[in-house]
Amino acid sequence: MLAPLDAGAFADTVELLEAAALVHGFRDAYVEADGTRISFADWVARARAVARQLSSHGVGRGDVVALMLPSGIDYAVCYAATAMLGAVTTGLNPRLGPREIDAALQQADPVLVVRAATMPATGRDIPELAASELTRELLRHAATPSRTIGRDAPVSIVFSSGTTGLPKGAWFDANNLAASAQAAGAMSAPYDRRLTSTPFAHVGYMSKLWDQLVWGITLVIAPVPWSAAAMFDVLRAERITVAGAVPTQWAKLLELPALTPQSLPHLRIGVVATAPASPALVRQTTERIGAPLVVRYAMTESPTICGTEPGDPPEVLYRTVGRPQTGVEVAITDAGGAALPAGQIGRVRIKSGCSMRGYWNDPELTAAAFDEQGYLISGDLGRFDAVGNLVLAGRSGDMYIRGGFNVHPVEVEQVLAEHPRVRAAAVVGLAAEVIGEIGVAFIVPEDPDAPISLAELRDWAKARLADYKAPDHLIVVGDLPRTAMSKLDRHRLRQLAADNPPPPRRKAP
Hints:
By secondary structure, the chain is an alpha/beta fold. Among the domains are: 1-183, Rossmann fold; 398-499, ANL, C-terminal domain (GMP Synthetase, Chain A, domain 3, 2-Layer Sandwich). Helix content is 27%, strand content 25%. The protein is built from 15 helices and 25 strands. The strands form 5 sheets. Strands 2-1-10-9-11-12-13-14-15 form a 9-stranded mixed β-sheet. Strands 6-5-3-4-7-8-18 form a 7-stranded mixed β-sheet, sandwiched between helices. Strand 13 and strand 14 (302-307) form a beta hairpin. Helix 2 (40-56) crosses helix 3 and helix 5 (174-182) crosses helix 7.
């Protein structure tokens, strides 16, 4: 299916924005949860006006502008306006803590911070501009920079969620954004209406600007604070065709009795990303929404990697993250970089025009992120099945060794989550005498009044996995901790496991 605009035909983001305003014109570009909306033409017109304002504050080509704004029209206008000046946008997720925000600002070194009234001042010696000060006039004839920005100039910096330390800033140019648009596949169709649930500071928005522009996609922003009932109402009222949500949101949506295949007649695809989804969740959601729930595998440094597709057989949809997307190469290697055959677990490496150019202002970290062949070295472990689908096995740092055997938490979590009395599961390793490490399972029960026992959980796991992969300790929780980017917070889980160790075993008399 061809997009209304050809991503390969534009010299830079400015050209594409202007073309989108003409071609998509009156169509909705953004719809906020309260129904406030803006067309493509008005979005670009407002961005021109804001670009003039930013320029008057000293923002020029190559400068960084930090957005401390919630997801919405103001964020989108500022992002486009910054691109019109040849400047670079970095978004700071409102959920980040002061320490994380301070580290991101230090790395990005912005010349200006655009801040929502609800966000605290940065406390740094950086000029700040309140979003309310930005003009609301639709200056359709406001001047747009006449010089060509080019595709090689930086467009955005996206900070990781910092699960292994302070956030790192991956930067992208227009070539990256164009490659992501060209790799979209079945995810995009002309004039889709897409529900987005992740913050605009997330790579899922920042790297997909060209995708929206070439396809004429309407982005409908999920309500904040989020609730399943509010999401369901938006899906229906806005005639959503593609709905993106994190696993926990899909799980809560399934609790609504009103959710049936007939209740969402416009929905074409459901999408789950940012965190692994259990096979049971993918299957149940597909059945209830009346459309395939596809899985997308991506990361901050490489926002387009693999995905399942509508029409894939159940064993692919429910147990893999699919095949590499258009223009993406994925290799599974040992620690030294040698390729491994299908079926063997190794390090996931990615080579793609979508992958970041590097880490902002950190050449040493950038050099360490890529191998000699130009592959991005991820921290993920995985294997290919016999027909080329990628099966993830977790993060390299998440693996633990129990009695000399490697255990990959994701594999165990998927099995535990299939138990009918388990709503969600997570597993981490905990240091132990004699056998080195044990597996600690965190379980969110379907019925809080009747949680599953450790014995039942172990029996279930041992019937489906090697016995050493069965968890040794069980901690029942009301929910699993998440990072600011909605990823499972394994660092917090390890802390909880250490604070709640299993009782010492009694020695035999």
